[in-house]
């Protein structure tokens, strides 16, 4: 718990950071790799590192609140990769999936929640209960009159996503009677992008990864081709508003060149 003097200093610093962003260009779409849940739990002295997943899942809604407050209307979160689902211990995966069902999916159903849910990844690698909970939330929020869009990448692999998009394009063309030569002549990046899990949504302007790791881990490989990257040394459950504001400040200070 923060002491009163530290709390006051924190609020003052947060206001100063917010003021610095007042007349800058903020990202339209922020993507986040929420890394370090278990390491945070160990750092905090918990006997069960898996508790970090609960704190991390609960923290999602706080971070979404910061985004909404700043007018950031597109957020993408990397929750679990295909490798996470296959290679992690079964009890850890089961615990994470319960957190997704109870702490992420269920609150999105509440009428006061402004976010419309989109899913990215392979539903077939998820437990039935998790798949059902996320699909229910996606369907329930689809017609929500809102400009706030949350994409949850779960059971996700960026290379597999691109392969699936190309496969879908080829199947569509084959059904239309096109030859392989026809497809090759007409093939465009836009045609592939339209068949990604995120088809129709804007690419991320800023990708934030917590925990100090400096890699993408297969997250939004196509979509993040021109994104600004920001690596934060704190673990996800300990990711504070001032850490988020610092990331936005770093983004606003960069001159985006889109391929240069």
Walk me through what this model shows.
This protein has 260 residues and is α/β, with parallel strands linked by helices. The chain has a domain of 178 residues: Decaprenyl diphosphate synthase-like (Undecaprenyl pyrophosphate synthetase), CATH 3.40.1180. Helices cover 48% and strands 14% of the residues. The protein is built from 10 helices and 6 strands, in the order αβααβααβαβαααββα.
Task: Walk me through the topology.
Layout: H1 4-20, E1 29-33, H2 37-43, H3 51-70, E2 74-81, H4 82-87, H5 90-108, E3 115-120, H6 128-141, E4 148-156, H7 158-175, H8 180-186, H9 189-193, E5 206-209, E6 228-231, H10 241-252
Helix pairs in contact: 1-10, 2-3, 3-5, 5-6
Strand content: 5-15%
> How would you characterize the largest beta sheet?
6 strands, parallel
Annotation field: number of helices: 10
Text of the CATH class of the domain at 26-157 and 204-249: Alpha Beta
Instruction: Report mean pLDDT, rounded to a whole number.
Output: 94
Distance between the terminal alpha carbons, to the nearest Å?
46 Å
Q: Which geometry do the CA atoms define?
A: globular
Biggest sheet: strand arrangement = 3-4-2-1-5-6
Which architecture of the domain at 26-157 and 204-249 would the CATH scheme give at its second level? 3-Layer(aba) Sandwich
Number of strands: 6
Q: What is the SS-derived class? A: alpha/beta
What is the fourth-level CATH superfamily of the domain at 26-157 and 204-249? Decaprenyl diphosphate synthase-like
Q: The CATH topology of the domain at 26-157 and 204-249, please?
A: Undecaprenyl pyrophosphate synthetase
User: Helical amount among residues, as a percent range?
Assistant: 40-55%
Rg over alpha carbons: 19 Å
The SSE order reads: HEHHEHHEHEHHHEEH
């Amino acid at each position: 718990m923060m002491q009163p003097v530290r709390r006051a200093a924190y609020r003052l610093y947060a206001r100063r950071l917010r003021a610095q962003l007042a007349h800058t260009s903020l990202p339209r779409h922020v993507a986040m790799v929420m890394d370090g849940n278990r390491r945070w739990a160990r750092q905090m002295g918990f006997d069960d590192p898996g508790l970090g997943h609960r704190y991390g899942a609960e923290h999602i809604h706080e971070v979404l609140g910061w985004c909404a407050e700043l007018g950031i209307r597109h957020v993408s979160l990397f929750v679990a990769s295909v490798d996470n689902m296959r290679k992690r211990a079964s009890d850890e995966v089961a615990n994470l999936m319960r957190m997704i069902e109870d702490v992420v999916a269920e609150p999105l159903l509440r009428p006061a929640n402004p976010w419309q849910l989109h899913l990215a990844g392979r539903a077939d690698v998820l437990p039935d209960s998790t798949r059902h909970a996320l699909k229910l939330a996606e369907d329930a929020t689809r017609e929500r009159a809102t400009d706030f869009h949350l994409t949850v990448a779960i059971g996700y692999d960026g290379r597999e996503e691109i392969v699936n998009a190309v496969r879908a394009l080829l199947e569509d063309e084959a059904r239309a009677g096109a030859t392989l030569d026809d497809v090759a002549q007409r093939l465009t990046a836009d045609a592939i992008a339209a068949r990604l899990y995120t088809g129709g949504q804007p690419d991320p302007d800023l990708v934030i990864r917590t925990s100090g790791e400096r890699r993408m881990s297969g997250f939004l490989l196509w979509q993040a081709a021109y994104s600004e990257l920001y690596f934060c040394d704190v673990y996800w459950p300990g990711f504070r508003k001032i850490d988020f504001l610092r990331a936005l400040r770093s983004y606003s200070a960069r001159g985006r060149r889109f391929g240069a």
